[in-house]
Give the backbone structure.
Amino acid sequence: MKRIAVLTSGGDAPGMNAAVRAVTRGGLARGWEVYAIRNGYQGLLDNVFEQMLARNVGGIIQSGGTVLGSARCPEFAKPAGRAKALSNLRARNIDALVVIGGNGSQSGSASLAAEGFPVVGVPSTIDNDLYGNDVSIGCDTAINITLEAIDRLRTTASSHQRAFAVETMGRNCGYIALMSGIAGGAEVIALPEHELKPADVAGRLRAAYQRGKTHALAVIAEGAKCGVKELMEYYGAHRKDIGFDLRVTRLGHVVRGGIPTAADRVLATRLGAAAVETLAQGRHGVLVGIVKGDTAVTPLAEIAGKMRPADASLLELARVMAI
Ligand code: ADP
């Protein structure tokens, strides 16, 4: 291995920069040349490469987002787009590519690997929905930002004897909702991984009111079948029976920004370095992730098109803690 390239793709996640730094410095430490590609797969198609030296990744470990830029690139999902990407990589004699990104981005790396180019994926998504990996770069920060919002809403909910429904991000995965809901002491958590009807959510809020609680919090994952819209409609029709007034807060993209937590910076540093180490061992076509606390590699072909669901069995723990 002499010359590697690195890009960040898909939804930005706090800690991506720490991963770029780790790949860059890990590669340089081995005497390799490292090139950054701007704006994800789009930059690969546009042939935008920039040689990275150790100082180019100075002062970025603490910043959210990605200094390399990210983009969604539909052209890359088509064989003709990837053929152009392959020809750009080969024209520059790049030996391997490190893709820092989420589920879609790693499906892209799986395609590139299947078409014969050495790729290593690094899981980075606040959704934490990548198969073959227990924890993705960015999700700890997103959970903590979500939790801070939940804690703040609890203060006002308690003062006004209200219920709050907080919609969290996470696409079709309920991981952020589950973790922030447990940490925030939510009365009810609605996930895509577990069927819950608006009447069930409202019933839990009513029960909390009847038990004398001064507030109640429902944490609703954006992908849950019982979304905040359905809950508000139900509430509108049954308000009198429930006790609490209900307010809705949709957190949206605000949880994607911000300073990466220590956990995300350490994770990104470990995974970025492990991606380089994997290439040094002559392995590629894999995702480098964390499984049971250790770094582990999983073939990209195995993870493409799959998803890691949140552990819905923890909902029972949350339910007991809300008595
Ligand atoms: P994320 O990586 O955060 O899940 P996206 O799903 O938007 O973000 O994917 C990022 C990019 O990865 C897409 O714009 C596209 O270029 C590429 N991509 C997504 N899915 C595929 C696929 N099935 N095959 C090839 N490339 C894909």
In short: The CA atoms of residues 36 and 197 lie 47 Å apart. The chain has eleven helices and eleven strands.
